[in-house]
Amino acid sequence: MNICIEKSESGKDNLVVIINGKRQPIYSRYNPERDGNRFYKEHFTEGDDFYIFIGLGLGYHIEPFLNNPQVKKIIIIEPVEEIYSEVKSLAGIKQIHESGKVELFSGKNVLQFIPGIKGCYDYLFYNRIRVLSYKPLERIFSLLYADIERDIRKGLDDLVKDGVTIGKFARTWLRNFFINIKKVDKLTPVFSLFNLFKGAAVITGAGPSLDRTIDDIKNRRQDFFLIATDASVKPLVRNGILPDLIVTIDPQSFVHYHFDGLENSCIDDVPAVLSFLSYPTVFDIFKNRYIFFSRHPTTCLFDMARLYENNAILNYQAVSSMALKIALHMGFKDIYLTGFDFSYPEMRMYAKDTFFYDYTLMRCVRFCPFQTLEGRTLLRSSKKITGPGELPLYTSLNLLDYLQELESVIQEAAGFNGVRIKTWKTLGMPIKGADYVKAPSFGKISGMVKKEMAGMQVSTGARPDEGKFNAIAVTLAIRNRIFKSISQKEKAFDKSIEYLDKKDLRIWKIT
């Protein structure tokens, strides 16, 4: 492939891509600017104030958007490094690049930009984001452009989901953070567990199929390392099984029900992976805490470069995905998943002894027995789909999202040499990438969780600089934007900063 710049009949530059001897001009050979204006008229819509363009070209199709005062921000993605190298020194491209509205990513930088979208909460303060690709370039690089556009749209979807969740629970989560951070002067980051283990691990979920394996888990308890997601802790403990590690991620208060009645007894010495955003009562249960960090804005108060370098940023919707990712980093070669049905097989929602059954049994009456309550809840919150067997399955959109997320983690497992992931006596939805087994073959386990918290010091300093302070303020500003209908970004931030000024907000660093 060759890239060259030629003069059009109007005297303007034109970009030409030559592939296998075939010349493909990107703009009109007569008047390139006319193509750019036509593209603008076809795609600009009143109310759009943020555009992401795939394909820089010579910028003719971008300039009309740049000159429109309604457009507040433009991101340009040029994945073909040869094109950017050819055009970057041109006066028109420099003018676009240096505009206060524009961020430009090219070549390998594109691979850094796309994953970062999920943490760009500033994007949520624009009215509407459009993703556009310039068709002449898209036809030439169709597969590359399609992959990039798909990944950008997925990143924006995840950003919106995260933003809505953060905005909805902003004050609760910040309150959790301020309470929890003041309780510790040292912590053990989750990466302290990484690469210390060998052999097999079993990860338990709270789905109905856990009932099929719980006796086997108890009988073969010494053969594997047991990682329990929070909702599965009660069924395990009530059957005399103590996990080696507990993973919990949700900061809402209902998470305490997973441990209600167990605290200050057998589980307080079990190491737990949790967050500074965790509900304070849950945070207090565990003596041995391994802290993980998400993309929540409070993370900016720590040494983010170090956290990213050590894979301590773990941002997942579902605790199942989190637990699997941690097990992969810990070093296990055989990982068995049980109790992860992502559906309601046999018209049941959870395994026995979970918090759901405690709660439902309290509401039972003579004329509305337990099974009726469970059936009503299931039918009200699910939809019927075709299952892997002869009988239909009931599931929900949330569970299907969690399943897709877990499958993406399983795909990432290809980068962990020799890892085998299997589902154990699963009743529900099949999990792509994981082999189904009825009877696991465990090897000898090695490695153990350290009981002593060597840890890292958490040092506090002065109030954060303005950049970090505003990064925290975005948490409440999103809430003001989405749930308080404050459309002006400045006003949304002013309200947020006014609240934070009342808090003892200092900088925390891991040392």
Question: Overview of this structure, please?
Answer:
With 511 residues, the chain is an alpha/beta fold. It has 3 domains: 32-166; 183-437, no CATH class; 461-510. The protein has 18 helices and 20 strands. The chain has helices spanning 32-43, 63-66, 81-87, 91-97, 109-116, 135-140, 142-168, 170-181, 210-219, 233-238, 280-285, 304-309, 319-330, 355-363, 370-380, 397-412, 466-482, 489-500, and strands at residues 2-7, 13-19, 22-25, 50-54, 73-78, 102-106, 129-133, 186-189, 200-204, 225-229, 245-247, 272-274, 289-291, 334-338, 383-385, 393-395, 420-424, 435-437, 456-460, 508-510. The strands form 4 sheets. It has an 11-stranded mixed β-sheet, with helices on one face. A 4-stranded parallel β-sheet has the order 6-5-4-7. A 3-stranded antiparallel β-sheet has the order 1-2-3, covered by helices on one side. A hairpin with a 7-residue loop joins strand 15 and strand 16 (393-395). Helix 7 (142-168) crosses helix 17, helix 13 (319-330) runs parallel beside helix 16 (397-412) and helix 17 crosses helix 18 (489-500). The longest helix has 27 residues, at 142-168. It is globular, with a radius of gyration of 27 Å.
Brief rundown of the structure:
This protein is α/β, with parallel strands linked by helices. The chain has helices spanning 32-43, 63-66, 81-87, 91-97, 109-116, 135-140, 142-168, 170-181, 210-219, 233-238, 280-285, 304-309, 319-330, 355-363, 370-380, 397-412, 466-482, 489-500; strands at residues 2-7, 13-19, 22-25, 50-54, 73-78, 102-106, 129-133, 186-189, 200-204, 225-229, 245-247, 272-274, 289-291, 334-338, 383-385, 393-395, 420-424, 435-437, 456-460, 508-510. The protein has 18 helices and 20 strands.
